[in-house]
Amino acid sequence: MRVGLLTEGGYPYVSGEARLWCDRLVRGLGQHEFDLYALSRSERQEAQGWVELPPQIGRVRTAPLWTVDDEALRAAGPRGGRGRHARRRFTEHFGELAGAVCRGGSRGAGGSGGSGGAGGSSGFGRFGRFRDGETASGGTRGDAADRFSNALYGLAELARDEGGLVGALRSESAVRALERACRAPGALRAAHAARVPDLLTVVDRMEQALRPLSLDWYGPDELGAVDLCHATSGGPAALPGLLAGHFSGVPLLVTEYGVQLRARYLAAGDMDLSEPARALLASFHGLLAAEVYRRATIITPGNTHARRWQERCGADRAKLRTVHPGMEADRFSEIGEGGYDDFPADHDTLLWVGRIEPAKDLISLLHAFGEIRKEVPGARLRIVGAPVEGPEALAYLAHCRALAAQLFPYEADGAHSVGDNPVSFEEIGGPDAPGLADAYASAGVVVLSSVVEGFPISLVEAMFCGRATVSTDVGAVVEVIGGTGLVVPPRNPRALAEACVALLRAPERCARLGAAARARALELFTVEQNVAAFRSIYLEIVSHCPVHRDAVDEAGEPVPFANPAEAYLPGRWAVSVGPASGAEPGAEGGGVPSWAVSSRAVPEEAPVSPASPVSELKGASV
Question: Where do the DSSP E strands lie in 331-439?
Fold first, then answer.
């Protein structure tokens, strides 16, 4: 089959999210052909280039979300259209979309938002509280969702007719339409307080998210020609799949290993945005997520934590299929099979692996290590991370280094010995940690201290290596560990320290937990099980939701009745009956459908029942 793979800020870019997972999926499904449609997030990402693509990828189309075509802005003008009729259509559809956003009709925008984040809520509930099933205006959430849906596809059809809407979505007409919606009765309380800078910010962010409306990806030779669209995340990545379904009836599969709506909620809290802007953007992204979940044929969350978010945002449980991410176990097989016996680690060494950022809460880990040193004086802590990028990450790393130097002064065995700090900060690929497998082999216990986590990749790698783990109860940690490690509450250094000390003092227990963890990881989290799951899901979608396309001749003209009615019904309609046609069933052209056997295949002397259709045809006049 032909699959349209939709990504945002991911594959095929070198620095893309879910890059490895997408590459393994495409290579593992070698019998299918993939067309790749990718949205980039930054100029730097595009400059870093692509990964080497497998031969299964036949076409690659890319578009940026980080820049705007100045020519499109000039062509649109302040009113946002190229003609009076186009401007009127745009004002009508965008006004409906803005009205739905300002009323906060999505569960993700107005409710508590599920159990995400450190505190267990999205942080946007105070902007639009209402009873379950109602919007702020007293109407049902279904009414707002329908308004949003109709306006979205109305804008898509206008973009197809006019050649794009980038300029219109950033025009003065769009800002005025949003302002009217904010001032209308029934709008969110926070929306009433929106000022011109807030409106400009919201219009800018909405245009970025709706950029796929203006792309030329939906023709009969593009996404209209695929059998299935597979979006690797929600939000803008899934929007081309929605439009392919709207214009051509292509089914949509949505995979989310990290819920985009949750990520945007958390990111909005860190941005310098006003309360009205955050409320409006939360409502917009919540409505977009609900529309994606409603239109998707099947949704595949990567874990139960993501599944709960999707259900809270309106996803139908009947559409959900949990598919755990697949990871390569081969590079850890030697260490995992040998366990603690063949690869004796310094049992007093704690290992932390991951990206160094505030969500990982290394501050709590360092304070917990201070308590651990009181009970196990010889304990050491290795913090192994990927190369740090960005000013915020560099500042956080510097803060952690300073805290470690303050809490653990350099120690020396004697007056003439060189001092050493029990906490080390290392980079993957450095002299002390040339590879992840080497780092895990040196550890007695692997620690995860995050306050926000999606799917804990470092824990799965530790499980492949047969190492005991101590982790905080966030995200999908409990689902992944499944009783093969110790789990403590987040932001609790004392509990983290007590769990680490318990394992450092019991090497036999670590060996038992490590063996059980490896067996669980090999059963649930390998590339093979991931690829097998998606192979089955692809076949399920195509068999239940085939794309009905009109047949055309060489000149492109439609051919009436080229597809028989039976082609649209489930069942095996082409059972060959070779002997009746006078040829072998396996021969080329030698078999015909059983229901299409000609009258010449029925011997003249064969008795025919008077009640059969054949007798009626023979006796009828033509």
Answer: 349-354, 380-385, 423-427
